[in-house]
Specification:
There is one protein chain. This protein is mainly α and 164 residues long. It has 6 helices and no strands. Among the domains are: 3-44, no CATH class; 116-159, no CATH class. The radius of gyration is 55 Å and the shape is elongated. Residues 90-114 are annotated as: Disordered.
Length: 164
C-alpha cells in the first residue's frame, strides 16, 4: 500500500481538532513524523468529557388475559371458517369432475322398442307407433287397417305409401 493511501486512511480516523493542526503542515512531512506530531497534540489537549446517552425502547405493553382469550377465540373461528371454505371448494371440484355431460354431448342410443323383435303380431315399429298414418313399413309387417280397430282388409305391407 502506498504512503499516500495509508496517509489518507490514517487522517480520516483522527479527531477533529488534531486533523485541523495536521492539515496546516506541509505534505512533504513523512508519515512517521506526522504520527509523532499527532501524538504530542493528543497528549497536550485537555480531556473532553464523553457524553453518552441511551434511549430505552418502550417495553411492549402487557396484554391482559381477557384480550388474549378474545384473540384466541377469534383465531379459532377463522380456522373453522377456513376449513369450511376448503371443504366447500373440494366438494365443488368433485361435483364438477363427476357430473354427467350435457344432454347434447351424451350419446343417444336408439330405443330398443324400435327393434322388430319387440312387437307382437308381426307389426313393424312404424305401424305400431303411427298406425294408419305410418309412411314407412318394414317387412315382415302384417298391419291392416282393422288391426287397431279400423275396418279395412288392406294389409300395410301392400298399400301403405312408402312401403316396399
Amino acid at each position: 500500500m502506498s504512503d499516500t493511501v495509508l496517509r489518507q486512511l490514517w487522517l480520516d480516523k483522527i479527531h477533529g481538532n488534531t486533523i485541523q493542526i495536521l492539515a496546516s503542515l506541509p505534505d512533504e512531512i513523512e508519515l512517521q513524523k506526522l504520527a509523532e506530531i499527532a501524538d504530542k497534540i493528543a497528549d497536550n489537549q485537555p480531556a473532553s468529557p464523553v457524553y453518552a446517552a441511551t434511549q430505552r425502547q418502550p417495553v411492549a405493553s402487557v396484554v391482559d388475559a381477557d384480550d388474549m382469550r378474545k384473540l384466541s377465540d377469534r383465531l379459532a373461528q377463522l380456522s373453522i371458517q377456513l376449513q369450511d371454505i376448503q371443504k366447500s371448494m373440494q366438494q365443488q371440484k368433485c361435483n364438477f369432475t363427476n357430473r354427467t355431460p350435457p344432454e347434447s354431448r351424451r350419446r343417444r342410443h336408439r330405443s330398443l322398442s324400435r327393434n322388430r323383435e319387440n312387437y307382437q303380431d308381426n307389426v313393424c315399429w312404424y305401424h305400431a307407433k303411427f298406425a294408419h298414418q305410418a309412411h314407412k313399413c318394414r317387412k315382415p309387417c302384417r298391419y291392416s287397417a282393422n288391426f287397431f280397430g279400423r275396418r279395412s282388409t288392406q294389409q300395410a305391407g301392400n298399400d301403405v305409401p312408402g312401403s316396399k
